[in-house]
Design a protein that fits this description.
alpha+beta, Uridine Diphospho-n-acetylenolpyruvylglucosamine Reductase, domain 2
Length: about 425
């Protein structure tokens, strides 16, 4: 059996973790005592915690059908397919750089605009043109709602799941009314996007997208409409948020490491020069820039931990995993494994220059970013206080305290027209 802990102790522990600590850090600490995979029990709910990349691969990759329902063709999201959307990425990255050039203090808003623009166009073929796009605003509402609903032990029903069977009008059942509001908002968002693509297909004006592929290029009835609708909506409600997190962490990391910024500038100037911006084709020739982004993703992974659900009973290395167990995948611990990454808390891009790229350990195999062009155009440094001393934000904060300015007077000329 996977090691089980006392129910009462676990309940108290998770309550403290959720409200006072980063849960992924505490789960990682428990792995030191109980191993790379262990189980907890929150009242009657079994929870399996995975802290090892090896275990994650063997369980969730090899047996993905047991732990994740991904009905759309997985090839649609492979790197080889994502490369087909390079024009989309280029457009939105250049829009982001233009916005950053004009309004550097609003950098976090620009980050969200970038990630939403890319993911919405890939998922639904919808091009975000305005910085205050109403569709994106609704997507952001869904992201916030999901974060609130997913916070461990945030509602009494998390402790007592049987309460979900009681009527919503009873006192203390506010969580049911809130859940109904969240569901209504998310369904409306998903349905609107789906109708939009269908209408564009009917007119013959649909842009390439995952929704278009699923609707127009699959055999009739192969994928039910609701499956297509909700799967593609998750691309931008989930993917956009993680992309925003990664790019915000990129700014924070460079803010705290001026020597990294300097070395990155030197590599770009040497390989690309100052007459154009880096492109995807330059990636292989910019190893240090790639190392910066890989290290950002390792030190501050955009998803610290990810919950899955066991769809049926399973056995892993002789350990029984019950159906309906929550499976918590602790990516933070995987990226801070000191046996793989010596001095794991330190930000050291150079570690990737000496490591052979291994898909089992390379943090960017499933992440793409726009860090090359940001460094090509801008200097990133701390804001100064009234005494001229740099203000270094806390590790947890990236919204403020940053000075972003063009590296030279002619960088705006490097951008194509009609951006923003």
């Amino acid at each position: 059996m996977i090691m089980l802990m006392n129910t009462v102790v676990v309940c108290l522990l998770l309550a403290l973790i959720a409200r006072a600590f980063y849960i992924w850090v505490k789960l990682a600490e428990l792995s030191k005592a109980y191993g790379p995979i262990y189980s907890l029990r929150l009242l009657n709910t079994p929870i399996v915690v995975i802290n090892s990349a090896e275990v994650e691969r063997e369980l969730l990759d090899v047996k993905s059908a047991l732990y994740a329902n991904r009905p759309l063709p997985s090839s649609s999201l492979q790197a080889s397919k994502i490369s087909e959307y390079r024009d989309v990425q280029d457009y939105h990255i250049n829009t982001f750089l233009s916005n950053l050039l004009q309004h550097p203090k609003d950098f976090f808003h620009h980050i969200r605009h970038l990630s939403a623009g890319v993911t919405v166009e890939i998922s639904h073929g919808y091009r975000v043109m305005s910085r205050n796009d109403e569709y994106v605003k609704e997507a952001d509402v869904s992201v916030v709602n999901f974060a609130d609903a997913a916070l461990p032990n945030n509602y009494i029903v998390d402790w007592f799941p049987s309460l979900a069977a009681l009527p919503a009008w009873l006192p203390g059942m506010g969580f049911k009314r809130k859940a109904a509001e969240y569901r209504k908002q998310y369904y409306a968002l998903a349905e609107e996007g789906h109708r939009m693509v269908k209408a564009e297909i009917a007119k013959g004006t649909a842009r390439p997208s995952l929704t278009y592929t699923a609707l127009a290029e699959s055999s009739p009835g192969q994928y039910p409409d609701d499956i297509i609708m909700f799967t593609t909506t998750q691309v931008y409600t989930g993917g956009g948020d993680t992309s925003s997190s990664l790019l915000a962490s990129f700014f924070l990391a460079l803010l705290r490491k001026p020597e990294v910024v300097k070395r990155g500038h030197e590599e770009i100037d040497r390989i690309v020069g100052d007459e154009r911006l880096p492109t995807f084709d330059d990636r292989a020739n910019l190893p240090y820039i790639q190392a910066i982004v890989a290290e950002v993703a390792r030190v501050r992974p955009p998803i610290s931990f990810l919950p899955r659900l066991a769809g049926q009973d399973d056995v892993y290395r002789g350990h029984h995993i019950e159906k309906d167990s929550y499976v918590l995948v602790n990516y933070w611990e995987m990226m801070h494994d000191e046996t793989l990454y010596p001095d794991p808390d330190a930000f050291k891009p150079e570690r990737w220059l000496s490591m052979e790229r291994n898909p089992k350990t390379y943090s960017l195999d499933v992440i793409f970013g726009s860090g090359r062009r940001v460094l090509a155009m801008f200097d990133i440094s701390p804001a100064l206080d009234d005494n001229g001393k740099p203000i270094i934000p806390l590790e947890e904060c990236t919204d403020g305290g940053i000075t972003i300015k063009p590296r030279s007077s002619h960088v705006a000329k490097l951008l194509p027209g009609d951006q923003g």
